[in-house]
Amino acid sequence: MVYKLVYENLKHRPARTLLSALAIGLGVTMMLTLVGLGEGMMDDQANRARGVGADLVVRAPGSSVVGMGSLSMNQNILNYLRSQPHVVMATPVGIHSTGGVSSIMGVNFDEFSAMGGGFKFREGGKFADQGEVIIDDLYAREKKLRVGSTLNTMNRDWRVAGVFASGKLGRVMIPLTLLQELASANGKITMVYVKLDDSSQTSAVIAGLKKDLPEYPIYAMDELIKQFSVSNLPELNAFIGVVVALSVLFGFLVVFLAMYTAVLERTREIGILKALGAGPGYVLGILLRETVLLAVIGSAAGILMSYGTRWLISTFIPASFVQAIVYSWWPISAAITLCSAVLGVLYPALKAAKQDALDSLSYD
Amino acid sequence: MAIIEIQNLRKTFRSGDVDVHAVAGVDLRVEKGEFLAVVGKSGSGKSTLFHVLGGLTPPTSGTVKIDGKDLTAMNEAGRTRLRRESVGFVFQKYNLLPTLTVRDNLEIARDISGVKGPWGEQFLDVIRILGIEGKMDRKPRQLSGGEQQRVAIARAIVNQPAILLADEPTGNLDTENSNLVLGLLKHLNKKFGQTVLMITHDPEAAAFADRTVQMRDGLLHGA
Q1: FRET label pair with A76: which of A199, A348, B71, B93, CA 20 to 30 Å apart?
Q2: Inter-residue contact B180 to B106 (CB < 8 Å)
Q3: Can you tell me the distance from the alpha carbon of B1 to that of A134, in angstroms, rounded to the nearest whole number?
């Protein structure tokens, strides 16, 4: 019977119920979107790294495993790497940040393409040596570019020579020598991807390389891909913590205001229940159940809205951000929301439970 | 057998710096199955007496026993239990829960009292007498004032309380509906032996009761 009363109360004020649920849901969406962005971008990086087709990667000393990196490694290392047993190909890659999460990548196209089994061009083809750039299809969609369009980056205009299917490490690529020149980093690279004649020898080759290059981070690609995890991004985890705290506060305030208003509005009804013999626990139970139901509806709405944010991101900024749907966070975000909602209802519910029956009945 | 026993009941309110003696030493005895009307003008203290008897507010002093339970010794929890187990209210403003149907308004009173299962034959009879059997799925706003008050009467006696307290039950009704509601209260009193204590300012309404007492300046006359 109490559930029926709770349901009817929520139904009685549909606009308020809907708005409260949506506001509660926003907190859930914030959490799911942020976590989804973390996971999605890590997965995307892993997929693109996989697309290189290498067996191992050698990065500059002191560089982060999941970071973008810079042009800081001397390319003379290439000769050494190419002379090692089992190495059939070693191709350098240069990365230069162009602001935010965007970067431009310099490659030796033929070598890089051969290592990964070739580029699949949606339109156009490889760049010429000067003044041309190739971009992946997500970048093209986000920036509304196609072959022949002009892209301005690194303080100059580039002609788009080709649009390739994403999954090849970078989104914007130019010749490596040109990147080095523009970045005033001649002879410098960011990393070297190495292909072996026998992948089963990867560990042995890495062990050998580490003896000669003890300061260089060297990873098997499988190992590198495992490193693309949100847990390896302490800054993101701290940010997720902040968003969770904000969501708790947001949920608390929404429920507090909604239920405080509801209690004021229902003062007389609470008086009626008390006149019928309802104790504080009964009244408290009604408001708690109502809040839990709101939190459940809000959580469901928040989950649905996270699909909305994913659609927005994949439609308008597919190259900059990738949002995954992280199912494991559904119960977590719902539980966090529930806790904040219960905290939010405590004061209004206790106020209602303690209301004097006679005063409440006199309320108009 | 007395179902209500009141001795030297006093209820004093503090209003600013002044003590208001709303009930100033009332003695009253109501027998089981009796229909008693307490008649008085506005400010006579009759509503305060109603609130004390219903356990909505504690007495300041004196002795009040409802169905053998001493109300004077009760704390808030005890008075809540009294309202749940021994008293049924009918208010002037009906006080039905607006979001619930008639059936659910009756059910929630049972739920609060912890009563489960289908309605008993006697209560089904009450519903037929009150003429609300066809209104069960309607919300209060879909009912006339007279119909709402009949539902309120049904709710008041759904748990078979020792006493039914009615505070100006016809105050918001026209003459036709007033007579109908008062006639029904009398019928329920006679048919089921339901003790009724009605507060009213209207002598015509009081005429439906077995016995009438007057309240003036916080005191009962003719008790």
Answers
A1: A199
A2: no
A3: 101
Residue with tokens 């990196």: A69
Q: What is the pTM of this model?
A: 0.80
Place of tokens 């609300």: B132
Task: State how far Cα A218 lies from the chain centre.
Answer: 26
Per-residue model confidence as pLDDT tens digits over B55-73 = 999 999 999 999 888 988 8
pLDDT digits (tens, 9 = 90+) for A158-208: 999 999 999 888 899 999 999 999 988 999 999 999 999 999 999 999 999
Interface residues on A facing B, Cβ-Cβ cutoff 8 A: 1-2, 4-5, 8-9, 11-12, 268-269, 271-279, 282, 357-358, 361
Take residue A362 and report the two structure tokens written for it: 């006199």
The two tokens of residue B191 are 């048919």
φ, ψ dihedrals at B29, nearest 5°: -135, 125
Contact between B89 and A8 using a beta-carbon 8 Å cutoff: no
3-state secondary structure of A178: helix
**Hey, are the CB atoms on B99 and A5 less than 8 Å from each other?**
yes
d(CA B138, CA B118): 19
ipTM topping 0.90 = yes
A169, A173, A174, A177: CA torsion to nearest 10:
-20
